[in-house]
Design goal:
Blueprint: H1 2-12, H2 15-28, H3 31-48, H4 51-61, E1 75-81, H5 102-112, E2 116-122, H6 135-145, E3 153-156, H7 162-174, E4 182-187, H8 191-200, E5 206-210, H9 221-225, H10 229-251
Parallel strand pairs: 1-2, 1-4, 2-3, 4-5
């Protein structure tokens, strides 16, 4: 039930949904109020497509990068959270990577640099319908193609959200006493919620954010004045993540 409700809440809070709702309200309203709805739609459009504002919000929410030198010399495993592949795209003879693929490359980098001995991939499918295969299996395929041996890859392919990522990974780790020091690799915007969920189940991994959506601060006129559809995408992402964080906090998952 929580899984379905979270999907509905995500949809209801999207800036694009609000924009359409305001435009519909302007169409059906009488002239005295029509102008107000149109002004509200214009303000929402200007704010949600402003690249400077979107980047500032990302910089404030995303967890800062962690230097490789700040990590332990040899951790037992990197925990790689999924959410970066499309499991419903056919044909199903390949892996379709989406935004946030730095999660995969950063986990691979840690392994290749000798900073972790294994990679735990955590994630089943975040879709409502049954998927042809899991995201964890997709990323395991890519890691094997990159030369990571099967013996160094552990799969947790049942979870559908961050809460379950933590719960099922905890069960996997408990069954393997040799897995003590963990490094959690997920997108920088998602790291805050993920670390909280893992701490709640008794795991205290080292944070290693990846997949940054923010860029270095720019004060050029185009950053202020030129609307960007990517800005609306990033603000929608932040709305989703902050709503998720607050919901998890209320439910006691953090």
């Amino acid at each position: 039930m929580f899984f379905l409700l979270s999907k509905v809440l995500d949809f209801a809070l999207l800036p694009t949904v609000w924009l359409v709702a305001l435009l519909i309200a302007a169409l059906v309203a009488r002239p005295p109020r029509q102008r107000r709805w149109l002004v509200a739609a214009l303000v929402l459009t200007l704010l949600s497509t402003n690249p400077f504002l979107a980047n500032e919000l990302l910089l404030a929410w995303e967890q800062p990068p962690v230097a490789l030198a700040a990590l332990p010399r040899h951790a037992d495993a990197a925990v790689l959270l999924t959410g970066i592949t499309s499991v419903n795209k056919s044909p199903h003879d390949r892996v379709y990577l989406g935004p946030g693929a730095d999660r995969l490359t950063n986990a691979l980098w840690l392994y290749r640099a000798g900073r972790v001995r294994r990679i735990i991939i955590s994630g089943g499918s975040g879709t409502v319908k049954t998927a042809a295969h899991t995201e964890a299996s997709d990323l395991a395929t890519l890691l094997r193609l990159a030369g990571v041996p099967n013996s160094a890859i552990l799969l947790e392919d049942q979870s559908r959200n961050t809460r379950e990522n933590a719960l099922f990974t905890q069960k996997l780790v408990v069954a393997r006493p040799e897995l003590d020091t963990l490094i959690l690799v997920t997108s920088a915007f998602h790291q805050r919620r993920a670390m909280g969920c893992f701490a709640k189940v008794g795991l205290h991994p080292i944070s290693f954010p990846a997949g940054y959506r923010s860029a270095d601060r720019r004060l050029s006129p185009d950053a202020w004045l030129v609307p960007s559809p990517e800005a609306m995408v990033n603000i929608s992402l932040l709305v989703h993540e902050i709503t998720g964080w607050l919901t998890y906090k209320v439910l006691g998952y953090l």
